[in-house]
Amino acid sequence: MERSWQRRWCLWLPPFPLLLAPAALFGATVALRRGLYRRSLLPRTRLPVPVIVVGNIGVGGNGKTPFTQWLVQLLQDRGYRPAVLSRGYGARKGPRPLRVDASLSATECGDEPLLLAQATGAPVYVDANRVRAGRRAIADGADVLVCDDGLQHYRLRRDVEIVLVDGQRRFGNGLPLPAGPLREPRSRLTEADFVVVKGEGKAGEVSMQFVNFRLRRLQNGALFEPGTFAGRTVHAIAGIAAPDGFFDSLRRLGMIVIEHPQPDHAVLGAQMLDFGDDLAVVMTGKDAVKCQPFAHSRCYALDFDVRLDDAFAARLLEKLGRGQKTARHPGLSAVQGPAGV
């Protein structure tokens, strides 16, 4: 169902008439809420360290998680102590904020927070209240906060806004939810500091490319070149917002794909990895953190590196350092960080 809605929104098919009224109401509510925050009629909180917000104006599938991983690693490389603030979609209810470590399960903290914690080693805090999570992170020693999927969390004041866009789907039919894919109107992009496009961007946008693909066996971490699987039929599992992009990536790497799309953040079990044959099972990095405990020897994750222009990294670090007496990081080498799908 989720996949069929995505396709309808992004193929410019006419919306169902019954959805136009709810979409108009949603758009008006979003505009009203943002207006109240901008006029300080709803309270906003400024924390004592820089806050970088990473998000999107539409539904998922824009490369936000790989970008966030790249960003955290960039900050670590430049001497910062970043912490990630996440809502932890799909996490089990419990005391908040929850500090994520590699020993937790995706059920306890959410798949994306667990992936980011394992991939970067940075502290990740799960809490729908980002201000509360931010205060805990600062108390634990963080000197910069990365608010994952926090564009619409206006209560927390931010120093840098980065919006992710899918270069192929862009903004679909341009309508707000549920008639279209947009959480906020396209005009919102003019207020962001950077617009990062997964794929080829337009003028004024930053292009993000996924490169250096490899397959990682879940049981032991062994790495394999994609050519090892070229011409072979594989089962492909993708519990992400836009699974078609993952399946297309496998095909471009030469694999014959049997698609098994799942809802975004779907709970996966061992039985879902058993297809009654001896074919390899390839999944996204986000699904891999959920399947790690029960994966069999034919389960692999598709990993890759994220490549962004060095000039973008320099501008981002410069903006982050404004207001300080001296620049913390005057030099900048080539930037490329590993990330799972």
TrEMBL record:
Its EC number is 2.7.1.130. Keywords: ATP-binding, Kinase, Lipid A biosynthesis, Lipid biosynthesis, Lipid metabolism, Nucleotide-binding, Transferase. It comes from the Bacteria. GO terms for molecular function: ATP binding; lipid-A 4'-kinase activity. Pfam families: LpxK (PF02606). It catalyses: a lipid A disaccharide + ATP = a lipid IVA + ADP + H(+). The keyword Nucleotide-binding applies. ATP binds at residues 58-65. One of its GO terms (cellular component) is plasma membrane. GO terms for biological process: lipid A biosynthetic process; lipopolysaccharide core region biosynthetic process. Coiled coil: none annotated. SUPFAM superfamilies: P-loop containing nucleoside triphosphate hydrolases (SSF52540). InterPro entries: LpxK, P-loop_NTPase. Pathway: Glycolipid biosynthesis; lipid IV(A) biosynthesis; lipid IV(A) from (3R)-3-hydroxytetradecanoyl-[acyl-carrier-protein] and UDP-N-acetyl-alpha-D-glucosamine: step 6/6. HAMAP family: LpxK (MF_00409). Transfers the gamma-phosphate of ATP to the 4'-position of a tetraacyldisaccharide 1-phosphate intermediate (termed DS-1-P) to form tetraacyldisaccharide 1,4'-bis-phosphate (lipid IVA). Belongs to the LpxK family. This is Tetraacyldisaccharide 4'-kinase. The gene is lpxK.
